[in-house]
Predict the 3D structure of the following.
Amino acid sequence: MKTIKILNYIFVAALGFFAVMFGIDRFGNNNEYQTSKVTLYTEEYCQDIVGFNDIIPLEINMVDGKIANINILDNKETPRFLQKVTDEELVENFYGLTPEEAINLDIDAVSGATYSSNAIIKSVKTRMEIYEKEMSPSPWTWQLFGIIGCAVVLCILSICRRKLD
């Protein structure tokens, strides 16, 4: 009878351990954004980033966790400055990069369109920082799930103990 109790404790403890580990793997590593298509906009997040005349709103399309393309939306910039940015293919430098790579990209402004290109670069990097924070789980998520998992295991052990006594 004592051997059966010990085996039950081991079984329940192992079950609880695997449940907690599955939860940490499933909820603690949020890589959902790496397998989806997402469209991000900078306007709401980059109000303080101004080009030559005003903010330059961008649409950033992400595919499988990487920047697929960037569209410059309607803005109040001088068209010839934006044309220089377009001609120099500034935004194309971000294509194929993960948010972390985009944030750390060392890129120079386009000569003759410094304000506009700096605003675009800073807007992309700022939006990628925000996106990365949105997609990263808080360390408290892991800890909370671990505490809940341990509490469940202890409850199950307690129930098993009472039934076996």
